[in-house]
Design brief:
Number of helices of chain B: 7
Structural class of chain B: mainly alpha
Order of helices and strands of chain B: HHHHHHH
Number of helices of chain A: 5
CATH architecture of chain A: Orthogonal Bundle
Shape of chain B: elongated
CATH superfamily of chain A: Winged helix-like DNA-binding domain superfamily/Winged helix DNA-binding domain
Number of domains of chain A: 1
Shape of chain A: elongated
CATH topology of chain A: Arc Repressor Mutant, subunit A
Oligomer: heterodimer
Number of strands of chain A: 3
Distance between the termini of chain A: 16 Å
Radius of gyration of chain B: 20 Å
Strand content of chain A: 15-25%
Order of helices and strands of chain A: HHEHHEEH
Strand order of the largest sheet of chain A: 1-3-2
Radius of gyration of chain A: 15 Å
Largest interface: A-B, 26 and 21 residues
Largest sheet of chain A: 3 strands, antiparallel
Amino acid sequence: MEGADEIIHQSTRLRIMSTLNALRGHESLDFVQLRQVVGATDGNLGAHLATLEKAGYVAIEKDFVGKKPRTRVSVTRSGRRAFERHVQFLQDILNADAGK
Amino acid sequence: MAISKDEAVSALKEIGEARDKVLLMRRYRHAAPHMILWGSIWLIADSLFDFYPSLGGPAWMVLSLIGVAGSSVIGWRARAARDAGEARAAQGKWVVAYATFLAYIVATQSVLPPLSASQCNALISLFFAAAYMFVGIWLGWKIFWVGLAMGALVLFGFFAVAPHYFLWVGVVSGGALMAGGIWLRRV
């Protein structure tokens, strides 16, 4: 059984990764929409995204729509793999407990 | 890092909830541009009907064909962004849906006694309001509420604003559909 991913397991980061992982292919999510789904403040979400970006789990793109700045976030391939490993780890805990 | 069984259950629950939220949000985001498009068509066609009754019928025919083309493009672009194969498979669905709707209108007109223009319009408008409600039951309750609002506004206009029913239904019910689309886009 592989160990827990400490970066992903933190509650807000787990919600961020779960949300981004549910997107298809190269789909990304607007910062505002991600904030709504995750239920975090701007500063809190920004800090956790920075941690995930540093780990290479998410990609953050900034552009402009007209004159309005926009931040879009997507999960990277290594982020998806790490998330899947972490989910498997959680399921293994339940399976191990059920086998006792 | 040690994780207890309860923590694992709680984390998996959070993961499931986040996935459900994204699926619901995606459905709303896909429905929104169609609702804004058809709300605009409804607004223009029925307003024209009120001011120029002779133009109303042809306007509906032309604008509804534009709507079918527009919805096909919106659907195609949304699917192409995810999967080109899926986009090709879905290209003809709006045309089939439109043909089904026309067949429904012909069928209902053949079994009903002759209807006035406003009765005919109310019948079609209520059909679509009910369709949104049915779709909303499965895809997301916000779509249901938009359909309910549309239906209630159509009925109110039919009975309470009869002399300007078409203007009412165009501006208010069409406007409600557009507003609903804008609302869903922001969810």
